[in-house]
Design brief:
Blueprint (H helix, E strand, L loop, with lengths): L2 H4 E5 L1 H18 L5 E7 L3 H8 L6 E8 L14 E3 L9 E9 L3 H11 L5 E9 L12 E5 L5 E2 L15 E4 L1 H15 L1
Parallel strand pairs: 2-3, 2-5, 5-6, 6-7
Antiparallel strand pairs: 1-9, 3-4, 8-9
Helix pairs in contact: 2-3
Bound molecules: guanosine-5'-monophosphate.
Length: 190
């Protein structure tokens, strides 16, 4: 599968790196003197976390959570499930969730509710990508890298059927490819 045939570049590697550095500077200023814990959501948030933390100058720890996402289809199912929980408790800590993308908002809404119940000192969200046009549940987003249109994207941590996570840019699936992939996913699940 050639990327050029199915997708086009939406955000270049240079644009991503510039924006991630800006976010890192902003987060460093906001969390000065606080006990910061970054929680990345596996697997999509991994590249973003590793670049972002290099631009955060205040001391911080990291932890990971894995929750269920789309599976084979490119459309959300609304089903959210914890696959891997945090290693450490978060009560009294200043927690910043580092997420790859907020789409319908269902996943983030769920995450915020379960983490809030663990009594962190504060709980904020940093997402690289935001699809405001797809929102079904309003979620507070404290740091946003880029607002993007309602298209399926991949690269820079985000997958297209578990591949292309290593790309340094964000690509958007061409509409005809998106249609073909959704149909295949439907056939597989039926
Ligand atoms: P939501 O619950 O907000 O609808 O979706 C959140 C999750 O769905 C994200 O963490 C991500 O795993 C997945 N997702 C949403 N939109 C896209 C997209 O355009 N591309 C990819 N690869 N995953 C997406």
């Amino acid at each position: 599968m050639l990327i050029d045939d199915i997708a086009e570049v939406l955000i270049t590697a240079e644009e991503i790196q510039k924006r991630v550095a800006e976010l890192g500077r902003q987060i460093s200023a906001d969390y000065e003197g606080r006990d910061l814990l970054l929680i990345a959501v596996l697997k999509g948030g991994v590249l973003f976390l590793s670049d972002l933390m290099r631009h955060i100058t205040v001391p911080h720890a990291i932890d990971f959570m894995a929750i269920s996402s789309y599976g084979l289809s490119t459309e959300t199912t609304g089903v959210v499930r914890i696959l891997k929980d945090l290693d450490e408790p978060i009560d009294g800590r200043h927690v910043l969730i580092v997420e790859d993308i907020v789409d319908t908002g269902r996943t983030m809404d769920y995450l915020l509710r379960i983490l809030q119940a663990r009594h962190p000192a504060s709980l904020r969200v940093c997402t690289l990508l935001n699809k405001p046009g797809r929102r079904e549940i309003e979620v507070p987003l404290d740091y946003v890298g880029f607002d993007i249109p309602n298209r399926f994207v991949f690269g820079y941590g985000l997958d297209l059927r578990e591949i292309f996570r290593n790309q340094t840019f964000i690509a958007a699936l061409k509409p005809e490819a998106q249609h073909a992939l959704s149909e295949t996913a439907q056939e597989v699940s039926e």
